[in-house]
Amino acid sequence: MTIPQAQRQCIDLHCHSTASDGVLPPRELVARAAEQGVTHLALTDHDTLAGVDEARLAAADHGLSLINGIELSCVWHKQTIHVVGLDMRDEDGAFAGHVAQQQQNRWQRASAIADKLIRHVTDCGPDILEQATAHAGGEVPGRPHFAQALVAQGAVKDNNQAFR
Questions:
Q1: pTM recorded for the entire structure
Q2: How confident is the model at residue 22 (pLDDT cuts 50, 70, 90)?
Q3: Distances from the Cα of 3 to the Cαs of 9, 42, 135, in angstroms?
């Protein structure tokens, strides 16, 4: 994608929605970006393109250019790193298969986080995974969604305590 050069542009090439660990659904994220004067936005959710269709519709409503993106979790030299990909072709079958595998990995990670919280956090309810998933809008919950669920359960006083 070529971004035309104009005098007043505001470009955000890295943001997350509730399709991964963001706090706003894709439609609301795009609306907020447009309100803030963003002209070109890349939705780069972790290991998923699930929010792109909704974001694309919202971008059209707000006159904002949407750039398909993704933030892929990768292992490099035994370290997990995140690589941002832009202008992704979501119709590419081979790529979609790899993204589907990443989603399976993320669900396994979410389940492991829930199990650990149930074992180690006083007042953490057995339905923590379901609650975190609800905070994620039905998508794979990330750490922020677990923090929100712990606060809602009264297991911690705020998100900062949840992360500690």
A1: 0.76
A2: confident
A3: 10, 12, 34
SS3 content of the chain, % helix, strand, coil (to 5): 45, 20, 35
d(CA 45, CA 37): 21
Distance of CA 85 to the CA centre of its chain: 14
Q: Pairing state of beta strands 79-86 and 40-43?
A: unpaired
Q: Return the DSSP state at 113.
A: H
b/e code 113-132 from CB counts within 10 Å (16+ = b): bbeebeeebeebbeebbebb
Cβ neighbours for 29, distance < 8 A, ≥ 6 positions apart: 15, 17, 22, 43, 51, 55, 58
Strand (E) positions, the chain? 11-15, 40-43, 65-76, 79-86
According to DSSP, the β-strands at 40-43 and 11-15 are parallel
In the structure encoding, which two tokens stand for residue 23, read together? Answer: 């706090």
Task: Report the alpha-carbon distance of residue 102 to residue 139 in Å, rounded.
Answer: 13
Assess whether pLDDT exceeds 80 at residue 100: yes
Distance between start and end Cα atoms, the chain: 41
**If 0-12 CB within 10 Å is exposed, 13-18 middle and 19+ buried, where does residue 29 land?**
buried
